[in-house]
Amino acid sequence: MPAYRTRTASITCIIGRDTPIANDMDRIIDQFRDAPPAMLLGGDDNPYHPDGYGLDGLTPEKGRELIARMQEWNRKVYAAGVRFNFPYICNCHIYGRPDTRTGMWYLYDHWDEHADIIGPKPPVEPEQWMQREPDGKPHHNYPYRWLLPDRYELEGCVNNPHWDEWLQRSARFLVKLGYNGTFIDNNIHHCYCEHCQRAFHTYLEETYTPEERLARFGTADVSGLALETRGNKVLWARDQREYLERAKASDPEHFAKLMGTDDIDRCVPSEAGNGFHWGRSHDYWVDSLRKSHSEAEVAMILRTGDVSSLGIETPVQRCLWADTQKFWAWSIAKWHDRFHRALNGVCPEFILNPNWGAITGFRNVDSRRLEGKNVRLWANSQDIIFYEQNYLPCTLAPGYTLDLVIAYKYSNAAGARASVLAYFGLQYRALAELAMAEAATWSSDGIFIEARYKYPETRNAYGRFYEQHADWYAGRSSHARVGILYDYDNVHMENTYHIREVYALAHYCADNHILFDLFNEANVTLDELRRFNAVIIPHVEFLSAAGRNAILEYAAGGGKVLITGNTGVFDQHGRPVAANDAIERIRAAVWPDAPYAREGNIAAIGDIFQLLPKRVKEIHDIVDINPQGLFEKGVYDEIVEASKRETHNDARLATLLSELAGFDLRVLPDAPATLRVSAWAGDEGSLVVHFLNYNVPVSSLYGNIHEIAPEQVKPVPVENAVVSLPLPTGMRVSHVEMADPWHPDPEPLPFILEGGRVRFTVPRVDIYRAVRLS
């Protein structure tokens, strides 16, 4: 795939989460009338919301009244200046109780009364639409016993024809209401039902050729292959009595509430929901390893993805478990396709904005890859991928800058556009502005989703700037000089340590002002590699033969490669590689922890963390901690104290990469790590460079996070940032101009051309500035 090309400029977006059915529409709209966002996620009317209108007691007359009200809502929203209005829907939650005939069961019993609106009644009851555990019991992502009376939670299966038909009808119904897009929550799939078992065979036939299936599974015939349970940590842990005793002991009251009993022998563990078991099962597994292994041995088990203790003992078993996870993501993507097709003849421009979840933290990614979440597999089936994160970008302490870079960069690597909602810090305008600018910096057409309606002046300034300078953002491709391979297939193969290296390297490149991109497993091709002066292949244990050959050919043609860890020890099917090529020789020379080796244009480091700044906690672990845990349980204090002792940056890797590439990769050689930079090239020969100042300290928030006035949280400006930018080959620069949302009219900047680089000085960056070279 060629480098990601932006479709439009960034746009402004609000998630209001209001309930226009139950509240005053004009009052809601008045909150953003003076600064309408381009996109509004503005409705939260669903059957389990306390302000929403439930299904119980719904009459045809009330149904028609609600339809008219929602149509009125859309007319008013568009008249107020909003271009895209999205409601909230969920593609898996089913609420109600079959025993009391509430929620979806009430609707089913009264279906024929509404058939003129919702179509004919399904032939089987909602109990038969559900996701299933391997033993046939209903599967739950969230607790079965939901927070509200008579609102038990079950999960519909997108491969179940009855649930799928209901969802397709819902798609057409949204257009009837006047919506031109929708937010789709959850997109969680973890199902072993009969429909999924059959669809799994279709997935295998679509994904692999007969020759590939033979190499991967020992047979080209898919009929004998089934969804795998070995390797599934949640299933493994729930079968251990000790695990359940431990879960109960941590909070007996909560355990009893979730399970409906405090009796471990009578409880159904799946009813607590997979979300309850994600982290607990992982921690229990690691603690069980400690019973028979030293800490060093446990660390190596985690680093090498050894899941033999979970039943994975052969390459075929590992591949089946990986493809079970990928199948769940494929199922969600196929459902997105069907949703789009349901709208083709009604509203072809309808936009899907499905929720992927949190992607910037290690534990969040490690859990979501088990629930149908795979950006590459989703990329072509939706319009904008939605991510939700704990924290807005900010600086917690020196050396601890939080950002949302991965969400934008990794989406772009798959050819997708990203929108990001973050929660903690939204009460502070400076952080909201930083997040708004971050979307444009790292993705050029990225979207930050502002919660509520607090900062109309900022929203107006950025919205006008994006429109006025649309050509600075639209139709552009990243001018990255370094590529980092983020191979999600490796994650599904249980090489989760790969995530840690990718995220640490991305943070390092951003801190050291190195223009970088992520690229994924589908793009380990010669054309993709040639986009970069150097590529990093970080601990990619499972490397395909085609990818391996592309890397070797890239290096033979002059491209520079840095491999880390145990890269290439197995092929994509989990089989040991017997090749005696440069990748294998240099891997063997450095694994597991030798500092450095080089053969021609390929260099290797055994343990990349030896060259990265030492932190008391890695950034990708900090963002997994919820704000209460971070700010109220001593973790933040630990970070602040550690930052006083630590070296905040380590130039050795930047120097090594620059020496490998043959020129200095650092664009801002003397700027603080909190000033970040990206560059985007246009077809007409221009280059737009974005400067983003993350030095918005939040240390003053600790202990009084709801009392600090917004104006007290503000950026520390960067003055006179000297820029030395490597230019695209053959680019001529005759004009350099600077602008930002608060100073939208471009101002010329003096510049010097020297040695294939352009040098200029940005006089001041409060939060964001853009510079256009032409």
Structure description:
With 774 residues, this protein is an alpha/beta fold. It folds into 4 domains: 13-193 and 327-469, Alpha-Beta Barrel (TIM Barrel), CATH 3.20.20; 207-318, no CATH class; 482-613 and 648-664, 3-Layer(aba) Sandwich (Rossmann fold), CATH 3.40.50.880; 666-774, Golgi alpha-mannosidase II (Immunoglobulin-like, Sandwich), CATH 2.60.40.1180. A hairpin with a 4-residue loop joins strand 21 (675-682) and strand 22 (687-693).
The level 1 CATH classification of the largest domain is Alpha Beta
**How many strands in all?**
28
Poorly predicted segments: 47-52
Taking strands numbered 1, 2, ... along the chain, how are they ordered across the largest sheet? 1-2-3-7-8-9-12-13
What fold name stands as the CATH topology of the largest domain? TIM Barrel
Characterize the largest beta sheet: strand count, sense, and whether it forms a barrel.
8 strands, parallel, barrel
**CATH architecture assignment of the largest domain:** Alpha-Beta Barrel
- Kindly, what is the distance between the CA atoms of the first and last residues, rounded to a whole number of angstroms? 27 Å
Beta-strand level of the residues, as a percent range?
15-25%
Question: Per the principal axes of the C-alpha atoms, what is the gross shape?
Answer: globular
Mean pLDDT: 94
Overall number of structural domains = 4
